[in-house]
Design a protein that fits this description.
Blueprint: E1 2-6, E2 9-13, E3 22-25, E4 30-33, H1 35-55, E5 65-71, E6 74-80, E7 85-91, E8 101-105, H2 109-124
Antiparallel strand pairs: 1-2, 2-3, 3-4, 5-6, 6-7, 7-8
Length: 125
């Protein structure tokens, strides 16, 4: 089991759990994910952060930016400036077989949470 936690976020991986092996948490709530949901969410968030990295040098210090991306069943948005941002994630529930999830990490918890996601992702690759 891998556990990482900080102010306003939590991340766990337990491969001994067959169905819901990943837990992600924000300040006041958490949700367990299927590994396939985790893979989709990571790819989406990492692409979103990469896009922010490409654009941030074109922003003035006081300029805000909001970037959104969607990759079924996930949607993610970062909102902030060139140096810091918040993160909002939604997993859609278009039928009775899926649950709907909406989580938010404010500045600076979002960046620390995403860094922990990257570390966990890289350790499994």
């Amino acid at each position: 089991m891998i556990q990482k936690e900080g102010l306003g976020w939590r991340l766990e991986s337990d491969i001994s759990r067959k169905k819901f092996s990943i837990l992600i948490g924000a300040k006041d709530c958490s949700v367990e994910l299927l590994y396939t949901e985790w893979e989709t969410l990571c790819a989406l968030i990492f692409d979103l952060i990469d896009e922010h990295g490409k654009l941030k040098n074109n922003l003035m210090a006081e300029e805000d930016i909001c970037l959104e991306m969607e990759r079924y069943p996930c949607w993610a948005c970062i909102n902030g400036n060139r140096d810091s941002w918040s993160l909002k994630v939604i997993l859609s529930s278009e039928n009775e077989e899926r649950r709907g999830i909406e989580l938010f990490w404010p500045i600076p918890a979002a960046q620390v949470f995403v860094a922990a996601m990257r570390t966990m992702w890289d350790s499994k690759q």
